C-alpha cells in the first residue's frame, strides 16, 4: 500500500489513526499546525510537516516530497458549541481548509481521500436510528461546515470524473469519539465530555452535565460513544479499500446503534474512578441536539467496522491515559 498523509495527525483522533497505519506496517506522514495538536503525539519515525492546511503550496510540497498517494483529512475546527460564537473561524478552517486540501491534491496528482466528517451534519434527526439516508439538517456552523466539506469533495469528484485522475473518496461521519488506544495519547479538548468529566474528578471537583431538560428518558443528551481505536481502524480500512480501487459509499456512519446518555456516562465515570461526587447541572450548550444514535451497518458491511470496546472500557482507557500523562 502507498503512503498516506494525515492532516491533523498530531491531534487526539489523528494520532490514533497514524498509529493504526503504523500498526499495520503502512507508510504515513503527518501534517498539522499544532493549533490543537501536540508534536509529542507523532510517533518516532513518522515524518511530520508543521504547516496549516490553508497554505496550499505547503500542502502541495508535502504531498510531492513524501510521494503521497492518499490523504486522510482530519485537520479542522471541531467544536459545535464554540462554532456558534465563531462561525467565520469555523468556516475558514473547515470549508476554506478543505478546499485548499482538494486544490493541493489536484495539483500534486493525489486522487484518494478519506474525509473526517461528523454526526453534526444530521442536526436533530426525526428518526430513532440515523442511517446514511437520513436527511442532513445541521444546527451549528460546525455541522454546516462539515456538510459543505462533503459537498466540495463530491463536486470535485464529479469535476474530475472524466479526467486522467478521478478523485476517489469517502467521508466517515463521527459520533462521540472517546477513550484512548495508547496511554501516550489523550483527548485534551476543553469542550468534550470525557476530558471535562475525568479531569474534574481527578481534581476533586464534581463533573458537569450541560442540560438535564432534554426530551430524553433521563433529560440528558443521548449519543453514540465510540472508542477512538475503533474509529482509527475504520480509516485504515477505508484507505485500503480506496487503494485497492474498491467502490465506497460517499459517506459512512461510525455509529454503535445504541445510545448512551450523559447521566449514564457519569455513572460509568463514578464506577471506574471510585468517585462519589454528584454531577452539577449547568445550562444547555448551544448547538447540542437532544439525541443522535446511528446504525453502523453500512460501515460494517464495506469497511469491517465494529465496536470492540464497551462503555466501561472507553472510560477506563481514558482514565488510565490521564493517569499516565500526569506522571
Automatic annotation (TrEMBL):
Q: Under the GO molecular function aspect, what terms does this record hold?
A: UDP-glucose 4-epimerase activity
Asked whether the keyword Isomerase is assigned, the reply is: yes
Concerning SUPFAM superfamilies, the annotation shows: NAD(P)-binding Rossmann-fold domains (SSF51735)
**EC number(s) of the enzyme?**
5.1.3.2
Signal peptide annotation: none
Segments forming domain NAD-dependent epimerase/dehydratase: 4-255
Q: Which reaction does it catalyse?
A: UDP-alpha-D-glucose = UDP-alpha-D-galactose
Q: Which residues form a coiled coil?
A: none
> Which pathway, per its entry?
Carbohydrate metabolism; galactose metabolism
Q: Which family does it belong to?
A: Belongs to the NAD(P)-dependent epimerase/dehydratase family.
Its recorded name reads UDP-glucose 4-epimerase
Q: Which organism is it from?
A: Cellulomonas edaphi
